[in-house]
Amino acid sequence: MNENTNKVQFQQLFGTKIKELRKLKKLSLRQLSQRCNLDYSDIAKYEKGEVNIQLSTVFELSKGLEVHPKVLFDFDFLFNAD
Amino acid sequence: MNENTNKVQFQQLFGTKIKELRKLKKLSLRQLSQRCNLDYSDIAKYEKGEVNIQLSTVFELSKGLEVHPKVLFDFDFLFNAD
């Protein structure tokens, strides 16, 4: 698996984690967006791993989901040894 | 403390954590940059919290430091209730 696939996969795993946490909290996309400075349609893209988001968005998602930022990265991920 | 201070503080805490991990591994900026696709002068800026980095850079830093991405976010951080 080459470098870029790895990065895209990382982005997708992060997105899946966001969705998992949102569902756990029984929040719709709109409800989550109202808890942080993010648009619900953007959050939908983040959950599909379509956006290479920035730290400021990680911050907003943590705030909206009321979890520490490290929880957003709590998923299994193996770096492929090149 | 207003919203933006919070975000800048978050960025700085993240940067401090990167530096801490790099020192723990006894790596210079150049040595770390050789382990991932990042320029050493950029890494120096990240460590000072000067850049709102993207997930792809989080990925590279984790690879270079050989730690799971969630370790990069393992620092104390309190969201200020607005």
TrEMBL record, chains A, B:
<dbReference type="InterPro" id="IPR001387">
    <property type="entry name" value="Cro/C1-type_HTH"/>
</dbReference>
<protein>
    <submittedName>
        <fullName>Helix-turn-helix domain-containing protein</fullName>
    </submittedName>
</protein>
<dbReference type="InterPro" id="IPR010982">
    <property type="entry name" value="Lambda_DNA-bd_dom_sf"/>
</dbReference>
<dbReference type="Pfam" id="PF01381">
    <property type="entry name" value="HTH_3"/>
</dbReference>
<feature type="domain" description="HTH cro/C1-type">
    <location>
        <begin position="18"/>
        <end position="72"/>
    </location>
</feature>
